[in-house]
Structures
1.
Amino acid sequence: MITSNPDIAALPWQVLSDEIARILSKDADTLENNINYYQKLRKTPGTDPQKLHNIYNKLIREQTRFFYFSEIYFRLQNPNLVNMMNGIEQVFSKQKEINGKEDDDFVIYFRKCQESSQVYYMPL
C-alpha cells in the first residue's frame, strides 16, 4: 500500500529533490554491482539455471524501476517546474503564517516572463 511519510512530506522541495538524487545515485551503483554479479554467475559452470532466471527477472525489475524513477527525477529538474514548486511552497508557508491555517479553496497562478517568475495565491 502506498502511504505518505509525514517526515518526508515535510521536507522542502529542494531538499527532497537532493535526497532523491542521492538515492538514485546509490541505486545506480547497486544495480551495476548486481548486474556484474549476474554476469559472473552466468559464466560460472554448474550455476542453477532457475537461480539465474530468478536473478535475471529481479534485475530487469530493478532496472525498469530505476529508469522510471530517474526519468521522473530528470523531468522534475526542469527549471520552470523547480521555480514553480519553490514558489508554491513559499506561498503556502506565508499564507499559513498569516492565517494560522491552510485554506481549503484557492487558486495558484504561476507567471514566467523572460527570466523572471512569480507565484500568485488567491484564496476563494
2.
Amino acid sequence: MGKIETGEVLNLITTIPDTALYIEKDIIPGMMARRGRVKPLTVGEINKKIFNVEPEKPGEMSELVIGELLKYNRYNSTLTPELASEVADIVYYTSQTNCWDELKYPHDFFDFLGIDMEQARRFCILKYTVRMAIGDEENHKEIENEVLKQYLESQNMLK
C-alpha cells in the first residue's frame, strides 16, 4: 500500500482513546502539511467543500446524497466502503477549526443513517491516515476503500 500497511491502519484505530481530538490534532494538521497549507481552511472554503453544487466538483454533502445515500437503506442494507468514505469526508471538513458551529456536530444526520458519531470519526481517521501515507496516487480511492472495507468487515458492518 505504500508507506503504511492496512493492518497498521486497522490496529491504529483501536488505540485512539479520543477520536475527535485525534482528528483535530493529528489528521487535520497532517493533511495541511501534506497539502502545503499554512493556514486552516476558511469558513467559505469549508462551506464550498461541503455544499458546492457545481457539477464539475460537487461538495461532500452532494456526493454523499447523490452518490451513495440514494443506494443505501439503513434498515436492510449494510454500509459500503464508498458511503463510509463520504461520511469520512464530512467529518473531516466539519472538524475544521473555522467550520460553522451548526455544522461541527453532524450527529443527527449520521444518526439518521444509523451511524454513530464515534464510528463516523473512525472512518475519517482510517481514510485520512491512508491518504497521508500514500498521497494522491492514481488508485488512492481504491486503497482507501479497501481499508474501509476491511474495517467494516472486522466490525461486522459489511456482509
3.
Amino acid sequence: MDFHGRGVDQMVLDQDVKARGRPAVVLIDPEALASIEADARRCYPAEAIGLLARAPESDTVLSGHVVVSEAVALTNRARHPGVSVQVSRAERDQRLAELAERGRETIGAYHSHPDGSAEPSAADLQAVRGAGVEIIASAGVTGVGMVRAWWLERDCEPIELALELAPRL
C-alpha cells in the first residue's frame, strides 16, 4: 500500500480539515523534530516515512496553529526505497491504534528526500488522496539539510506552512 494520503487515519484527518481548515503555522515539539531528523539520517539513502500526531488539547491552547507533538516512524518497504515509500497496512494500522490508545490524533505524515529538496515531488503530489500536513526533510551523506512543512490537498498546489518549534506548554 502506498503511503501517500499517507496511511493517515483519513477519516479523522478529513473531519479535522473540515472543522479547522488549513493551518498557517505548524508548531512542532522539539523531540518530534529530532525524531524526524534521526529517522531521515538512519534511513539514508532510503526515504524515511512516518506519522505526525498531536495531543487533542494542544491546538485549543494555540488557536490557529496545528501542533505536532509526536512523530512515529514507519518501515519503508518500497521496492525502490531511495525514490518511493510504501508501508504495510498492518504496521500502519498498529501505529494508528497505538497513537489512539494514548489519546493522540493523526494529523499528517513526514518523509525524507534522500539527496533531494524538502519540497513535494511530482510523485508526492500525484499520490495525495486527502488533505493534511506533510513534513519533508532533505537528507544527504552529511545529515539532514532542511525540514519544511507543507499543506498537501488532492488536486491543489502545495502550500508551504511556517514550521516553528513549539513552546513548552
4.
Amino acid sequence: MINRGEAADIDNFVLNKIATSTTNKVEFAEITKDNFVRSINQLKKQAKANKFELEEAIIFISPDVATAIVESKVETVNLNLETVSPDITRVLNKYSVVEANIDDYGYQMIALLPTAFS
C-alpha cells in the first residue's frame, strides 16, 4: 500500500508524462464560460480527425476550465466511483472530465482515450 504523499508523486509523474507526450495539439483562446461549448466542439473535431470519438475519451481540464464550466451553467453530473480517486464529471451529458493541474504544462484541456492508460 502506498501513502498519500507517494500517491501524489505518482499522480504528478503520470500527469507529466501525459502532458509531455501529447501530440496533435489544438490551440484555444482562453476558455471561458462564453466559449466553453465552442471549445468542446473544436476538440471534438480534432478527435474525429484522429479517428476517435470525444465521448470515449477522458478529458483532463485545468482548474480555470473547471471554473468556466461552472460559470457557463452547462449540464453537469458528478460521478462518484468507489474505485476511482479523481472526481469524474459528466459534462453536457456526453463528456467525462477530470480536473487536473495541466495548466502547469501549458494546457487547458487534454483528451485521452482510456486505452492510453493500459
